[in-house]
């Protein structure tokens, strides 16, 4: 079955950096599920999957603009240390989660004081050319409810 819009796609992936080092993988875990054609996936990954077949394995190297975006060097903010989630003691270079109006965001600690921290709000992988090794595990037509909600339901997708 060829992947097209309004399909729920399940896939496994391994993400590699410019030197081929593995940064992330879902190997041994449940496949990722998303609703194709509804901006639920990085544009470069979705474009690479478009038209592929169930069972197909492939690699695609993508520029930063099609994955986590370009780095914005003016993306430093000062936040209260009490809003940082993920550790009790913070040091420069550590990653933390903060809650924003748009949901949780991962930040990198630049400098930390007793009450305030300076953080880089760029995604840690912003500005990098990344290679995705992808295996299409399954694909099916989306239900009317999934299309109306704009995301995949069930295992690997959104749970209501």
TrEMBL record:
GO biological process: one example: protein refolding
User: Which ranges carry the PPIase FKBP-type domain?
Assistant: 6-79
Of the GO CC terms on this record, one is: cytoplasm
> InterPro entries, per this entry?
PPIase_dom_sf, PPIase_FKBP_dom
Species classification: Bacteria, Pseudomonadati, Pseudomonadota, Gammaproteobacteria, Alteromonadales
Belongs to which family?
Belongs to the FKBP-type PPIase family.
Role description: Also involved in hydrogenase metallocenter assembly, probably by participating in the nickel insertion step. This function in hydrogenase biosynthesis requires chaperone activity and the presence of the metal-binding domain, but not PPIase activity.
Keywords for the protein's UniProt record, in alphabetical order: Chaperone, Cytoplasm, Isomerase, Rotamase
Q: Which Pfam families match?
A: FKBP_C
Q: Which reaction does it catalyse?
A: [protein]-peptidylproline (omega=180) = [protein]-peptidylproline (omega=0)
Q: Where in the cell is it found?
A: Cytoplasm
Report the GO molecular function annotations. peptidyl-prolyl cis-trans isomerase activity
What the entry lists under PANTHER family is as follows: FKBP-TYPE PEPTIDYL-PROLYL CIS-TRANS ISOMERASE SLYD
Q: EC number(s)?
A: 5.2.1.8
State what protein this is by name. Answer: Peptidyl-prolyl cis-trans isomerase
Organism, as annotated: Shewanella sediminis (strain HAW-EB3)
């Amino acid at each position: 079955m060829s992947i097209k819009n309004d399909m729920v796609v399940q896939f496994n992936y391994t993400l590699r950096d410019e030197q081929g080092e593995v940064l992330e993988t879902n190997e041994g875990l449940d496949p990722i599920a998303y609703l194709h054609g509804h901006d639920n996936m990085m544009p470069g990954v979705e474009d690479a999957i478009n038209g592929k077949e169930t069972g197909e394995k492939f690699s695609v190297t993508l520029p930063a603009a099609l994955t986590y975006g370009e780095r914005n060097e003016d993306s430093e903010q000062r936040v209260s240390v009490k809003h940082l989630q993920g550790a009790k003691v913070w040091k420069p270079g550590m990653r933390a989660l903060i809650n924003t109006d748009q949901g949780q965001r991962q930040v990198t600690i630049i400098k930390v004081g007793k009450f305030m921290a300076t953080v880089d709000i760029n995604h840690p992988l912003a500005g990098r050319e990344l290679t995705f090794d992808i295996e299409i595990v399954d694909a099916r037509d989306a239900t009317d409810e999934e299309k109306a909600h704009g995301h995949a339901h069930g295992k690997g997708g959104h749970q209501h």
